[in-house]
């Protein structure tokens, strides 16, 4: 539980903030590596077929060109080494529009870009599989066993006999992560070891994938990624650009920099896939669910599958005797889909929580009451007890804080001037896991001052990892914040979990805390003394007159955590204003109430939650990557076309955290907030639009044309 | 981006001369569109002539000639300055609103008034060089005609091109009957009425305007009018700022001092055609009528009846209808709902 004398639980400003706003924080391309050469990718202009020829003669003669690498001269790479999405220049086959087909390396970026224009490519073009609406009819059972049909009871019979039912299809488009920092790499070889400055959410994962793909040992690869300009999943797995930079650097025998352009981001580093979700709900007249089916049809790439788990929320959110979760998939000529913030849960919750709102409307029941009526005592998917579950509190606290009682139950009844006002609610959840992580803590005493350094191969996406680890170590060692140094983002450090799937904070902070407890124990043992109250490591360094002391821990999750179902939960409240002439929607107010265990830093946590909320508002209203089915290309290639919310789109944002101390999940009770912030958001907005206008939009994004 | 030469012109004569001998040379002003297009390899000038040092930025009252009593806005003035100038705000609030509805603060700080008129379409098929586009590569076909054309034209398009013109500023200028003043390559001055400045695509969609190569926009003249109290720029878009219009309406009304009768009406639409689209049918119907929602609706119906939507932009017909009504209503109320 949060202690008044502790730094954890207090709104400490991020310790790397000044370095970032003054430009001193070095991101991947900022490293002052000497003698750099520059690489520029060139990409296929067809989505399916084979390269017939590549004419590089003119480019080779262009000023400054050092090398041109294509499938004709690229070294043999291991295509199964863990790099996602192919495009490793190993064959003339084209599987998606904008696939990398080569790179030019030159003395300057401008020379490389110019030479790339001089290359001409001919193809044997095949008709691309790019029209999802047509392809989905051929979707089949996925290979992934986790996505096999999950059945409980008899959904069909329950739907047949239902007093009330909702059976609707919800559509979500392809989306892109588009972190502010596009993917970029500097590769520098020293002998047979390569250093890759490269934004990586999973430091050790990037190291392993790069090594395997390059056919070298992991210890021959060093990943350096102290700062990441956002990733949202696109920097979790690594993509061809990482390895191709290393290949280029070896080829020209000097360091090489490769940075993707915004336009190249749409077909280089994954995407959130298009989902067609059918949700069927059966209920009694008094609102008790008797069946819940969630059937998702989606697409993969041509050779590989990836499925975001759209049915996950439906597995655990509500108590129902009959349940069915299925997935069907069809290959498509697009880059491989991948994890994208709130994978499956953000898109799946749009379907489930819209359907719950539709059911409440049919029942003439308040949507909060409907959810309270179907609250499960245990995890319905596996029968395990919850480590804790805060859905009810989130709904009740949120309803009060938001003024839910001002909502008009009948849609279209709240007109103010040219605007229709509506309120919407939704729930969300995301699993809470701790992953194995090692950490070293080093103490150094100079006079009466003790300085601590904690080291681990963690990643900070910009969310505040540095700050929460400094807070954790300061508390555990008895030091002020400015006497703790956090060193992360380097694969030479002790291996750590990735900053993915909301496991970062729990894995890293528990490991740092464990390491600090261990070093205190070791100092205590070394002193040979008995103390009435446990002294801090800092006090022991002074009393034992030590100058240097360090220890390392390999922290593991609690074994007992397996006995529980541990999740973060939220409730989202949206107030929208819809222009009744033009259909333009504004989210006037948004409130997310989150139960996510221990909140190490309410300030950075709030930023992370409202960041997720804002992306959710983008998902609801503006974001869509559009494929032209004739050519398989994205027509939305820049921020002029791919609309993330602008400042003016965002009204008052509020985040409330439910206080809880869930030590069944992990020792520090940390459950993670990175993913859950986006879960349920789109549904809350869509439900508010229904409340405002009486129009139920089941296809995202809800652009003005859909509300005319 | 391809190699090019860069020079700075010291005066208008030097600028126009620098372009005269080289058909692939271009003026560079704010660069907010041209440089982007060069990075995308859409525009491939061999020479850029920087004209930002020319003294053509002034905003001043017009004291003689056909537009006497009006306001002249320098071709190289920044959009931000034009939008915020006290005389523009007082006498031409429609123009101020339209400029501020476009782009972002940073872009408006760089973009010039003359450059704004010369923005090229944001059609994605124009922007991606691997796609067919008659505007970028004449004869290659129109990718949007049977493609993703949600953002495209419903008026005045041809089989060759269905792109729309992206400027907000120009929609207000069309409604205000502005005049574009130009210095020709031979040093002559000429004036182009706004309605004749931009072109419909026809068989030559590669030509956006009637400006000849090497001609320099020196100023935009705004004639005097009585719309200042009753005008409104309505922009409907996919997000609240920094998005091109799905559709926009610049509306201005002059009503009789006694009663509610419309003396003059101006309606120009953006996001519907290859040029700012003057809703002349609707304007004519409104003159002499009572300024009522019913009459606004009749005028809107008549204007939009001529629309020819494409596969993905059928919504623009209904949206245009509603937007004309709303913009007129807002104009009548002095910009208030």
UniProtKB/TrEMBL annotation, chain A:
Gene3D superfamilies: Aldehyde oxidase/xanthine dehydrogenase, a/b hammerhead, Aldehyde oxidase/xanthine dehydrogenase, molybdopterin binding domain
Protein name: Xanthine dehydrogenase family protein molybdopterin-binding subunit
InterPro entries in alphabetical order: Ald_Oxase/Xan_DH_a/b (IPR000674), Ald_Oxase/Xan_DH_a/b_sf (IPR036856), Ald_Oxase/xanthine_DH-like (IPR016208), AldOxase/xan_DH_MoCoBD1 (IPR008274), AldOxase/xan_DH_MoCoBD2 (IPR046867), AldOxase/xan_DH_Mopterin-bd_sf (IPR037165)
Record's keyword terms, sorted: Molybdenum, Oxidoreductase
GO MF annotation terms: iron ion binding; oxidoreductase activity
Source species taxonomy: Bacteria, Pseudomonadati, Bacteroidota, Cytophagia, Cytophagales
The keyword Transmembrane helix is assigned to this record: no
UniProt organism field: Spirosoma sordidisoli
Stretches assigned to the Aldehyde oxidase/xanthine dehydrogenase a/b hammerhead domain: 22-127
Taxonomic superkingdom: Bacteria
SUPFAM superfamilies the UniProt entry points to: CO dehydrogenase molybdoprotein N-domain-like, Molybdenum cofactor-binding domain
Pfam families, per the entry: Ald_Xan_dh_C, MoCoBD_1, MoCoBD_2
TrEMBL record, chain B:
UniProt name for this protein: Xanthine dehydrogenase family protein subunit M
Keyword Flavoprotein: yes
Keywords, comma-separated and alphabetical: FAD, Flavoprotein
Limits of the FAD-binding PCMH-type domain: 1-227
MF annotations from Gene Ontology: FAD binding; oxidoreductase activity
Pfam families attached to this UniProt entry: CO_deh_flav_C (PF03450), FAD_binding_5 (PF00941)
Record carries keyword Nucleotide-binding: no
Organism: Spirosoma sordidisoli
């Amino acid at each position: 539980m949060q202690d008044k004398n502790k730094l954890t639980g207090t709104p400490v400003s991020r310790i790397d903030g000044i370095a970032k706003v003054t430009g001193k924080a070095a991101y991947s391309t900022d490293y002052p590596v000497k003698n750099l050469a520059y690489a520029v990718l060139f990409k296929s202009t067809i989505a399916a077929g084979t390269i017939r020829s590549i004419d590089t003669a003119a480019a080779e003669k262009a000023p400054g060109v050092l090398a041109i690498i294509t499938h004709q001269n690229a070294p043999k790479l291991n295509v199964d080494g863990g790099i996602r999405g192919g495009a490793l220049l190993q064959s003339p086959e084209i599987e998606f529009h904008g696939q990398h087909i080569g790179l030019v390396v030159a003395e300057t970026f401008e020379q490389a870009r110019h030479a790339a224009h001089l290359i001409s490519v001919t193809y044997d073009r095949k008709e691309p599989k790019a029209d999802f609406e047509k392809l989905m009819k051929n979707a089949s059972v996925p290979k992934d066993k986790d996505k096999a049909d999950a059945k409980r009871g008899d959904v069909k019979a329950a739907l047949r006999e239902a007093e009330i039912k909702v059976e609707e299809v919800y559509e979500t488009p392809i989306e892109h992560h588009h972190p502010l920092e596009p993917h970029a790499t500097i590769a520098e070889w020293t002998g047979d070891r390569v250093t890759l400055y490269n934004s990586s959410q999973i430091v050790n994962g990037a190291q392993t994938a790069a090594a395997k793909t390059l056919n070298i040992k992991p210890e021959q690869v060093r990943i350096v990624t102290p700062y990441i300009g956002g990733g949202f999943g696109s920097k979790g797995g690594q993509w061809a650009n990482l390895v191709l930079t290393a290949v280029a650097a070896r080829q020209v025998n000097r360091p090489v920099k490769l940075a993707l352009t915004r336009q190249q981001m749409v077909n280089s580093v994954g995407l959130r896939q298009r989902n067609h979700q059918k949700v069927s709900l059966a209920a009694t007249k008094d609102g008790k669910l008797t069946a819940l089916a969630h059937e998702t049809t989606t697409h993969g790439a041509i050779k590989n599958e990836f499925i975001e788990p759209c049915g996950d929320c439906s597995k655990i959110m509500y108590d129902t005797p009959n349940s069915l979760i299925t997935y069907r998939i069809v290959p498509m000529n697009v880059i491989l889909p991948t994890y994208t913030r709130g994978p499956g849960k953000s898109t799946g919750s749009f379907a489930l929580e819209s359907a719950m709102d539709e059911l409440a409307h049919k029942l003439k029941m308040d949507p909060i009451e409907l959810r309270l009526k179907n609250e499960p005592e245990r995890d319905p998917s596996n029968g395990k007890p919850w480590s804790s579950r805060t859905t009810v509190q989130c709904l009740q606290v949120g309803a009060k804080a938001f003024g839910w009682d001002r909502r008009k139950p009948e849609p279209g009844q709240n007109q103010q001037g040219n605007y229709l006002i509506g309120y919407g609610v939704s729930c969300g959840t995301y699993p809470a896991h701790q992953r194995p992580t090692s950490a070293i803590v080093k103490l150094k005493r100079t006079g009466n001052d003790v300085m601590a350094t904690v080291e681990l191969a963690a990643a900070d996406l910009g969310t505040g990892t540095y700050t929460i680890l400094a807070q954790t170590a300061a508390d555990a060692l008895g030091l002020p914040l400015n006497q703790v140094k956090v060193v992360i983002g380097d694969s030479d450090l002790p291996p750590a979990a990735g900053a993915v799937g909301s496991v970062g904070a729990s894995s890293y902070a528990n490991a740092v805390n464990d390491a600090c407890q261990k070093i205190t124990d070791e100092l205590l043992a070394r002193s040979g003394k008995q103390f009435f109250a446990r002294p801090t490591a800092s006090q022991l360094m002074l009393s034992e007159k030590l100058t240097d002391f360090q220890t390392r821990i390999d922290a593991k999750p609690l074994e007992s955590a397996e006995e529980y179902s541990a999740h973060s939960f939220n409730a989202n409240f949206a107030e929208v204003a819809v222009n009744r002439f033009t259909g333009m929607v504004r989210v006037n107010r948004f409130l997310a109430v989150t139960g996510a265990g221990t909140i190490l830093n309410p300030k950075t946590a709030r930023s992370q939650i409202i960041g997720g909320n804002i992306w959710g508002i983008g998902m609801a209203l503006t974001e869509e990557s559009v494929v032209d089915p004739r050519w398989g290309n994205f027509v939305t290639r820049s921020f002029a076309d791919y609309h993330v919310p602008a400042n003016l789109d965002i009204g008052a944002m509020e985040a409330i955290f439910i206080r809880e101390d869930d030590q069944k999940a992990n020792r520090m009770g940390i459950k993670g907030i990175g993913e859950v912030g986006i879960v349920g958001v789109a549904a809350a907005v869509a439900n508010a639009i229904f409340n405002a206008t009486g129009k139920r939009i089941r296809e995202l994004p809800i652009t003005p044309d859909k509300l005319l | 981006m391809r190699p090019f030469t860069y020079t700075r012109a010291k005066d208008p004569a030097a600028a126009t001369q620098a372009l005269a001998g080289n058909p692939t040379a271009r003026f560079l002003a704010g660069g907010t569109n041209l440089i982007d297009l060069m990075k995308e390899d859409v525009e491939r000038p061999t020479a850029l002539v920087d004209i930002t040092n020319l003294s053509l930025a002034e905003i001043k009252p017009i004291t003689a000639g056909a537009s006497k009593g009006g306001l002249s806005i320098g071709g190289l003035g920044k959009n931000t300055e034009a939008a915020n100038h006290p005389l523009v705000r007082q006498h031409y609030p429609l123009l101020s609103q339209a400029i501020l509805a476009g782009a972002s603060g940073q872009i408006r700080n760089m973009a010039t008034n003359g450059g704004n008129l010369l923005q090229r379409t944001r059609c994605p098929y124009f922007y991606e060089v691997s796609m067919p586009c008659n505007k970028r590569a004449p004869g290659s076909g129109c990718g949007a005609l049977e493609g993703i054309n949600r953002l495209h034209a419903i008026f005045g398009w041809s089989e060759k091109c269905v792109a729309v013109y992206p400027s907000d500023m120009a929609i207000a200028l069309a409604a205000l009957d502005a005049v574009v003043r130009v210095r020709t390559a031979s040093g002559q001055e000429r004036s182009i009425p706004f309605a004749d400045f931009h072109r419909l695509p026809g068989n030559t969609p590669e030509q956006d305007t009637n400006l000849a190569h090497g001609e320099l926009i020196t100023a935009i003249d705004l004639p005097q009018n009585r719309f200042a109290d009753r005008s409104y720029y309505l922009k409907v878009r996919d997000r609240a700022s920094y998005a091109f219009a799905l559709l926009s309406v610049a509306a201005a009304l002059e009503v009789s001092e006694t009663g509610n009768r419309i003396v003059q009406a101006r309606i120009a639409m953006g996001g519907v055609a290859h040029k700012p689209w003057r809703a002349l049918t609707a304007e004519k119907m409104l003159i002499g009528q009572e300024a009522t929602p019913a009459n606004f609706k009749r005028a809107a119906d008549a204007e939009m009846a001529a629309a020819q939507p494409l596969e993905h932009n059928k919504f623009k017909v209904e949206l245009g209808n509603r937007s004309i009504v709303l913009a007129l209503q807002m104009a009548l109320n002095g910009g208030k709902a």
